[in-house]
C-alpha cells in the first residue's frame, strides 16, 4: 500500500480513479465524466487521470489489471496527444485554467478553462484575441476578447463537431502537418 | 482524523496489539469495529467489467461525497510535487506539464469495489490510520 495512503492529492484524484477504472464500460465512464467534467477536464484533472493511469499500469507489471492495460494506454495517449498539440503552437494558442490571466478579463463562475487564440479583427485588421471558454455546464462560449455582452455559446457536442469540421477542412487542404495526432481530440476536448 | 459528512462506515472502536511471528518478526496488528453497511459494492473487482445502471441521485451523492471529502483538511499521506513530477516523467515523458495547481483531500484508493449501491457508501479507509 506504500504511496497509496489517503490524504492530500491532486484535485480530482478520486474522480479520476473511478473514471479510469470505468474504461471497460463506456456508458458508465461517460456518466462519471458527466458527473465530474469540471474536475476531470481541468489541467489538474488531466494530471490526476495520468497519475491514476500510471498507478494501475504499475499494477499490470505484477499481473493485475491485465484486461485494462490497453484502455489505460489508449486513454493516456488521448490526453497526451491533445496536450502536445497545444504546445506546438507557442504564442498563438494559450490554454489557461481558471482563474485566468487578468489581461484576458475576469473569470466567470462556471469557467473550467479558457483557450485564447490570437487573430485579427475583420473590420480594421487590428490584433484581437478570440476567447473560447469551457464552461462547467457542458457548454463553450466564444467571444472576441473584450466583448462580453455578445458571444456565442455552443453545446458540448456542437463545439466538438465544430472542432472536427475545422480539422476535416484543414486536412483536406493538407495544411495540417500531422492530422493523425488529432484523431482523438473529441474525447478530451 | 475524523471525516464527517462523508457516507462511510463509522469506526466504533480500535484495538492495537503486537505479535511475534517466526517469519515476519514483530507484527503490529489492528482490529476495528465499524457500523454495518448492508449495501453491496458496485463491482466485485476494482475495475468495472459491466455497465452500471444507477439513478441520478446516486451520482449526485457521489459528487457531494467527494466534494465534502476534498474540503477536509489533513496532514495525512502528503503527496509532494516532486512525487508527481517524477511519476509523470517516468511514465509519460515531458509531454505534460506536471505542475499541480490545486491540492485537495482524497480517499486515494477509490475503486468500484469499495463504493456501494443502491445507497452510496465509501469503504476501505484503513490506510487513513486513526
Oligomeric state of the chains present here: heterodimer
The largest sheet of chain A is:
5 strands, antiparallel
Round the mean pLDDT of chain A to the nearest integer and report it.
Answer: 77
How is the main sheet of chain B built? 2 strands, antiparallel
Strand line-up in the sheet with most strands of chain B: 1-2
Q: Could you tell me the strand content of chain B as a percent range?
A: 15-25%
Number of helices of chain A: 7
- DSSP summary: helix tally of chain B: 2
Task: Give helix % range of chain B.
Answer: 10-25%
- The fraction of residues in strands of chain A falls at 15-25%
Q: Distance N terminus to C terminus of chain B? A: 6 Å
Can you describe what's shown?
- Chain A is 42% helix and 20% strand.
- Chain A has 189 residues and is of the alpha+beta class.
- A 5-stranded antiparallel sheet of chain A has the order 2-3-4-5-6.
- In chain A, helix 1 (13-20) runs antiparallel to helix 2, helix 1 (13-20) packs across helix 4 (43-60) and helix 4 runs antiparallel to helix 5.
- Mean pLDDT of chain A is 77; it is low at 98-104 and 174-189.
- Chain B is an alpha+beta fold and 130 residues long.
- Chain B has 2 helices and 5 strands; from the N terminus they run E-E-E-H-H-E-E.
- The longest helix of chain B is centred in the middle third of the chain and has 15 residues, at 56-70.
- Chain B is globular.
- Chain B starts with 10 loop residues before the first strand and ends in a 13-residue tail after the last strand.
- The relative contact order of chain B is 0.26.
- Chains A and B meet through strand 1, helix 1, helix 2, helix 4 and helix 5 of A and helix 1, helix 2 and strand 4 of B.
Amino acid at each position: 500500500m506504500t504511496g497509496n495512503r489517503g490524504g492530500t492529492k491532486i484535485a480530482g484524484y478520486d474522480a479520476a480513479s473511478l473514471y479510469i477504472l470505468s474504461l471497460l464500460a463506456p456508458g458508465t465512464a461517460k456518466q462519471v465524466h458527466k458527473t465530474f467534467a469540471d474536475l476531470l477536464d481541468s489541467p489538474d484533472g488531466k494530471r490526476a487521470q495520468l497519475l491514476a493511469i500510471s498507478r494501475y499500469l504499475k499494477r499490470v507489471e505484477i499481473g493485475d489489471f491485465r484486461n485494462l492495460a490497453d484502455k489505460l494506454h489508449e486513454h493516456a495517449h488521448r490526453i497526451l496527444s491533445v496536450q502536445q498539440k497545444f504546445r506546438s503552437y507557442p504564442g498563438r494558442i494559450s490554454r489557461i485554467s481558471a482563474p485566468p490571466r487578468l489581461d484576458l478579463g475576469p473569470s466567470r463562475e462556471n469557467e473550467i478553462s479558457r483557450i485564447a487564440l490570437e487573430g485579427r479583427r475583420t473590420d480594421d485588421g487590428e490584433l484581437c484575441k478570440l476567447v473560447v471558454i469551457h464552461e462547467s455546464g457542458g457548454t463553450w462560449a466564444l467571444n472576441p476578447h473584450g466583448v462580453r455582452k455578445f458571444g456565442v455559446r455552443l453545446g458540448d457536442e456542437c463545439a466538438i463537431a465544430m472542432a472536427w469540421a475545422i480539422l476535416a477542412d484543414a486536412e483536406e487542404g493538407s495544411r495540417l502537418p500531422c492530422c493523425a495526432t488529432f484523431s482523438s481530440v473529441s474525447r478530451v476536448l | 482524523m475524523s471525516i464527517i459528512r462523508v457516507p462511510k462506515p463509522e469506526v466504533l472502536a480500535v484495538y492495537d496489539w503486537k505479535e511475534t511471528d517466526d517469519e515476519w518478526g514483530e507484527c503490529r496488528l489492528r482490529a476495528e469495529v465499524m457500523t454495518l453497511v448492508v449495501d453491496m459494492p458496485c463491482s466485485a473487482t476494482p475495475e468495472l467489467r459491466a455497465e452500471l445502471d444507477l439513478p441520478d441521485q446516486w451520482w449526485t451523492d457521489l459528487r457531494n461525497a467527494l466534494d465534502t471529502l476534498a474540503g477536509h483538511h489533513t496532514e495525512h499521506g502528503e503527496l509532494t510535487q516532486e512525487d508527481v513530477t517524477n511519476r509523470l516523467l517516468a511514465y509519460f515523458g515531458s509531454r505534460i506539464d506536471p505542475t499541480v495547481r490545486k491540492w485537495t483531500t482524497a480517499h486515494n484508493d477509490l475503486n468500484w469495489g469499495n463504493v456501494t449501491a443502491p445507497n452510496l457508501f465509501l469503504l476501505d479507509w484503513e490506510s487513513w490510520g486513526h
